[in-house]
Structure formats: C-alpha cells, structure tokens
Design goal:
By secondary structure, this protein is an alpha+beta fold. It contains six helices and twelve strands. The longest helix has 16 residues.
C-alpha cells in the first residue's frame, strides 16, 4: 500500500533504505496475535518499512514531535488501538478496533489519556506519511523555515514532489514534499501556515530559496 513511499522517503533522507530499518512479518504477526486484532494495511506497511528506524519512530537523538509505538508497545486503550503519542505532551492517536480491518481507516485523536476521542478528517496513510515527513525534516542536518499561506504553495509545487502523491494527503492538516535529487524534505502545516525544510547540504537550501523566492530562515 504505502511501504514503498516510506522506503523512498528514507532513501532520500538517510541515503539508503535497508530491511533492518523495518520489522519482519513474523514480528508484526506476533503483535497482532497478542492484541487479538489485525493491523490496518497502512500501519503494517509503516512497521515493515520504518518500525525499527530511530528517527522515523521518534526515538533517535533529535527532538522529534511524535513517537510511534514499537510493536511491543501497541496497546488497546478505551477501545482504541493507540499507535502514536506526542513527545513532551500527552496527546494520543489511534484507530478504533471496529475499523482496524479496513486497509486505511480514519485516525482518531485525543488531548490526553482519559479524554474523549475525536475523529479526524485524515486517513491513517496520510497521517503516517506526514508524521514520517516531519520526522525526516528534523533528522536532516540543515534546516530552514518560513511562513507560507496556503495560496502561496504554488511556488513550491513545481519544485518539490509530494511524498507519495497529492491524493494521499487529501483531508489532512499537513503536506509533505521531497526533492530526491537535492535530498530535500519539506513539511507544511495548514494550522500554523509554516513550512519547515530539511536538507543534507546548505547549498541545497540556498538553491531552493533562489528558485522558489521563499523567505527561508535558517533554524
């Protein structure tokens, strides 16, 4: 479903993808047996591609926003399969057990354990792809940011490819972009009107600034 999307993003960010970055099929099946449910296809793809990678899971040395649960830590809480939490805050994201049999169910979130779950507009695939995009930006050595209204995204779209496809981002609050040749990853938030960009080299950021005219500010 989206395994290749994660692999492509990781190759751009870290130079290569290896099977050791992901979890083996028998590990995923063991987690399903423990929980008594089948994981959605989108979540299986995430674990198969990136379930062991410290930067994508948010357990590496960088200050990542999100932490994706290790297979051994997946749990059912208040009738929901919790797969992601926000680092330094108690927010959680989940899939309802009634929906886990669907390949790409809707994501639910809540502000803290014990609070009410709410349904988000985005699908699981879009959530995972954009979390991975944000984590990838944070893992890159050269970073910049700028304020950008959503109507100004036209300056970016001809220069950067969507991670996956534009369709995969439909209904979400975020967009993730990639430039494979320059090894650039970008993440845009509609909520804050902010784009954050990561690159392997300063010259790649400077080239993007010149081509796009964006007021990039080093981070």
């Amino acid at each position: 479903m989206i395994k290749e999307v994660f692999q492509d993003l990781m190759s751009t960010t870290f130079g290569a993808w290896t099977p050791q970055d992901g979890c083996a099929d028998d590990e995923i099946t063991a987690a399903e047996d423990r929980l008594g449910i089948s994981l959605p296809d989108a979540l299986r793809d995430y674990y198969a591609a990136a379930g062991r990678h410290p930067e994508l899971t948010g357990t590496g040395g960088h200050e990542h926003t999100f932490r994706l649960s290790a297979l051994r830590d997946l749990s059912l809480e208040d009738g929901h399969l919790v797969f992601c939490v926000e680092n330094h805050r108690p927010a959680q994201w989940s899939v309802r057990p009634d929906d886990v049999g669907w390949p790409d169910p809707r994501v639910h979130g809540r502000a803290a354990p014990g609070k009410k779950w709410y349904s988000e507009a985005r699908r699981l695939s879009a959530f995972l792809i954009n979390v991975a995009g944000r984590q990838a930006v944070g893992a890159l050595p050269c970073q910049a940011t700028c304020r950008l209204r959503d109507d100004q995204l036209q300056a970016v779209e001809p220069l950067l490819d969507y991670v996956g496809s534009r369709e995969l981002h439909r209904g979400g609050h975020w967009l993730s972009f990639v430039d494979r040749s320059s090894r650039i990853v970008a993440h845009y938030s509609y909520n804050t009107s902010t784009m954050r960009i990561g690159a392997v080299s300063p010259s790649a950021l400077e080239s993007l600034r010149e081509r796009s005219g964006l007021p990039l500010r080093p981070v």
